[in-house]
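Design request, tokens follow.
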């Protein structure tokens, strides 16, 4: 009935620009990334010392696995967003540190420099990042400004050829391995989002310091950053206000990079549990013979495929410069973050007590994907944004006085 009404009303499916098949070239790129892992990277991934991560960066740069979507003019690979995400997902499934490095040097903080930076900034930051010489963190969150990011208080004041920062950030990732942080901060005094801009702060700048870090569930350190009359050359100002919208539009590509990492981890957990279920025997048969296990495998596969399709849609529909549609990004993020937790949880269940120990990789995979419901905007914040897109209006979360 519904279909007949739709036909009479002249309803026509408009479709999207997404092609539901990955091309041969995209599959080759994923195979090539897996091959580089086997040949060059596998022996390096267990060394998480600062020197070990630097060695990994150099090797990845040499193999063309950093700056995947960065312009070739600055040493990047120049891939479209979807191809970039496919490689991040593949590397993440091989080893989380690889997905993290590919993500941070492609869709990470560097994206804002590539999009809005001056030619000098691109030469000084994008090019060495693609060569594996430097790493760049992103500092947005503050003690009083988590989900309410625009409540940030860190200030920047331009004085002659310098910019002076005061304030603090928290929960900043990878600071121990990186040399710079793109710090979101206020340039004006209106108290509004329009004051917000960003400065590229070197970690050896006078007045900059950071905590020793707090370990998260996935055994990664999250850092507090302190700016105490921190002096940075003025040419490191990336955007001096009126920039929150611009920064967030690039940040949507970063969000899809994290979503691809969750996909990679969920896929690795699924593959591991599937293989285990075909080997482990109880009641004199493989446990994959039990319908209880088969239904878990089926649920995991359905969620994995659906999460991939939503993520690939968001990437395929990105603008020519790789900026995704915000609502499609949020939809991919909400579904994948939830699906990845459930897939890793089922994978642990399939392994029984082995899955729950740290001898097997699944507890760590679960811990990694768990953070995805919190960083880059919590799932609740993304659902707020999806609702605003559906209703086509701005829905302020701020309490009115
Ligand atoms: C692994 C990891 C890595 C991170 N890396 C970085 C980084 O590199 N740089 C950086 O700047 N930050 C980073 N963060 C911080 C992250 O961005 C923040 O944790 C996130 O924005 C949420 O802020 P919060 O933790 O203060 O939670 P809060 O904002 O205090 O939220 C607490 C709870 O309230 C809910 N809530 C809040 N407001 C609303 C609302 N309007 N509607 C519905 N529910 C709401 C939230 O969904 C959440 O459940 C990282 C976090 C994690 C977990």
């Amino acid at each position: 009935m519904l279909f007949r009404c739709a036909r009479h009303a002249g309803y026509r499916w408009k479709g999207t620009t997404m092609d539901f098949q990955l091309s041969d070239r995209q599959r080759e790129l994923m195979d090539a990334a897996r091959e580089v892992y086997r040949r060059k990277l596998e022996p390096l991934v267990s060394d998480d010392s600062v020197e070990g991560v630097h060695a990994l960066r150099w090797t990845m740069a040499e193999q063309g696995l950093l700056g995947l979507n960065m312009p070739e003019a600055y040493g990047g690979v120049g891939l479209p967003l979807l191809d970039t995400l496919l490689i991040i997902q593949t590397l993440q499934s091989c080893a989380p540190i690889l997905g993290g490095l590919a993500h941070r040097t492609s869709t990470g903080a560097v994206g804002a420099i590539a999009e809005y930076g001056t030619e000098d900034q691109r030469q000084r930051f994008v090019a060495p990042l693609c060569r594996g010489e430097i790493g760049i963190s992103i500092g947005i969150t503050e003690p009083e400004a988590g989900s309410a990011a625009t409540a940030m208080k860190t200030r920047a004041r331009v004085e002659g050829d310098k910019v002076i920062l005061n304030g603090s950030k928290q929960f900043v990732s990878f600071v121990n391995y990186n040399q710079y942080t793109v710090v979101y901060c206020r340039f004006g005094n209106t108290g509004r989002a329009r004051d917000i801009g960003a400065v590229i702060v070197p970690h050896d700048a006078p007045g900059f310091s950071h905590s020793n870090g707090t370990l998260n569930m996935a055994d990664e350190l999250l850092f507090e950053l302190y700016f105490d009359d921190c002096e940075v050359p003025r040419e490191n100002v990336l955007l001096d206000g009126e920039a929150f919208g611009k920064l967030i539009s690039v940040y949507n590509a970063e969000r899809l990079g994290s979503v691809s990492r969750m996909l990679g981890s969920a896929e690795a957990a699924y593959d591991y549990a599937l293989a285990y279920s075909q080997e482990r025997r109880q009641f004199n048969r493989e446990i994959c013979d039990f319908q209880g296990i088969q239904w878990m495998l089926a649920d995991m596969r359905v969620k994995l495929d659906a999460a991939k399709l939503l993520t690939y849609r968001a990437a395929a529909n990105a603008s020519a410069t790789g900026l995704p549609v915000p609502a499609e990004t949020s939809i991919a993020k909400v579904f994948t973050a939830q699906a990845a937790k459930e897939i890793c949880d089922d994978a642990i269940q399939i392994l029984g007590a082995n899955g729950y120990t740290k001898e097997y990789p699944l507890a760590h995979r679960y811990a990694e994907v768990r953070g995805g419901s919190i960083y880059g905007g919590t799932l609740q914040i993304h659902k707020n944004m999806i609702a605003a897109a559906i209703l086509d209006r701005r829905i302020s979360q701020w309490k009115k006085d």
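Comment from the thread starter after seeing the answer: thanks! Residues 245-391 form a domain with the Butyryl-CoA Dehydrogenase, subunit A; domain 3 fold (CATH 1.20.140.10).
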